[in-house]
UniProtKB/TrEMBL annotation:
Cofactor note: Binds 2 [4Fe-4S] clusters. One cluster is coordinated with 3 cysteines and an exchangeable S-adenosyl-L-methionine.
InterPro entries: Elp3/MiaA/NifB-like_rSAM (IPR006638), Methylthiotransferase (IPR005839), Methylthiotransferase_CS (IPR020612), Methylthiotransferase_N (IPR013848), Methylthiotransferase_N_sf (IPR038135), NA-bd_OB-fold (IPR012340), Ribosomal_uS12_MeSTrfase_RimO (IPR005840), rSAM (IPR007197)
Protein's recorded name: Ribosomal protein uS12 methylthiotransferase RimO
Source organism of the structure: Thioploca ingrica
Family: Belongs to the methylthiotransferase family. RimO subfamily.
Summary of the function given for this chain in its UniProt record: Catalyzes the methylthiolation of an aspartic acid residue of ribosomal protein uS12.
UniProt cofactor(s): [4Fe-4S] cluster
Amino-acid positions noted as binding [4Fe-4S] cluster 1 in the UniProt annotation, renumbered to this chain: 18, 54, 83
Domain TRAM: from-to ranges: 376-443
Radical SAM core domain residues: 136-373
One MF annotation (Gene Ontology) recorded for this entry: metal ion binding
Domain MTTase N-terminal: 9-119
UniProt binding sites for [4Fe-4S] cluster 2: 150, 154, 157
Amino acid sequence: MIDTIHKIHKIGFISLGCPKATVDSERILTQLRAEGYLISASYEEADLVVVNTCGFIEAAVTESLDAIGEALANNGQVIVTGCLGAQSDVVKATFPEVLAVTGPAALTEVMAIIHAQLPPPSDPRLDLLPPGGIKLTPRHYAYLKIAEGCNQQCSFCIIPQLRGPLISRPIGEILTEAEQLVSAGVKELLIVSQDTAAYGVDTRYRLDFWQGRPLKTRITELSRALGQLGIWVRLHYVYPYPHVDQLVELMAEGLILPYLDVPLQHSSPAILQAMRRPANSDNLLRRLDHWRSICPELTVRSTFIVGFPGETAADFEHLLAFIQAARLDRVGAFTYSPIAGAAANHLPGAIPEEIKEERLSRLMSTQSAISAQKLQARMGQTVTVLIDEITPTTIYAHSAAEAPEIDGVIIIEAQAKQLSPGEFIQAKIIDADEHDLYAKNLATHPRHHQHHRVKAQK
Ligand code: SF4
């Protein structure tokens, strides 16, 4: 008979959803390995499967339910966690046979359920754990989650209901994790949370200590400290608060990448108000100008929703004019999709699907022309790039202006010289299409460096 106390159990893991969910998955996987469990790549070999789900839009719910069904069919022992897990009645009604259902960021709960099903080995082999934990992203870049939850009340979103109000991680803990990631070989940190610029608000910017140094729990202090670790630091999901100006100043100083991922969602004051978002788009254009004057090499990425309930033809034209005037570098756009539980579902004036689709395609074609012009304007530039992948013929890389997995890539012809993913090189941009750039490798670049002009320190 197998002694279950000493058997090393294998856990299968399916990770769906956004970068924030990826961080949750990494935490669970890291804990599993720390306790001596093995991770199985196949359903058949796994003793149990954890499915980390997404519940943000209808398509994500369907994908999550499909993944749960597949894991049940192929393994049978399934724990559901993540955003869809917050709607446990939906999951349980569809799949009554799942072992347990938890919500997002539920490391302790998931581990407790796994312990009850499959006791951990009595002598956890801590040396199984690579330094920096288990990463689902390639070793040279890693997501670093700095807070959980959100204090905003955007009417199309249920994240505050799913994940609760903003809870910021202690600044010292984040910086220690960042240092561990850097010593594990990470060259770029992607800072994520639901509302990154709000970091610390919930603690009233509490004073904390890191390496004996007093630091306030605030995004500017955190960014400045991260910027001194000698790697690239990229901020995602920056809500357009007034203090974003200070972050752009840090970008101009070369401390963090000059890349602002600022979800604006719309420009029409009426729609922004219905979305419960800041509603002054003239001001936004002025602020974009101001940010660009502080940091001329700034890349701005944003996302927009078209076909929000009550969006008139005039509202949509307002948005198109804003897109023309703002000349953003990268834009993601979506048609409005009602999410169960979102306040916006009760708004009058639902837009028919075909009009939503038509507006989306008009917005995207307007923006594609702008994005293409912006890429063309980079021809002839010499940029520092971080190598992501190498094939016998091609190097895939990205510069400060492209977020990995989100924006386009820089494609470079491979040469005989030995290079590896995670190395910085200098490249000259020689061609561009609508999304990607083509470049020539100039020379290897020193390992620790900053990405662009460094202004004289004040
Ligand atoms: S700021 Fe983002 S996470 Fe928070 S409510 Fe708005 S859309 Fe949702």
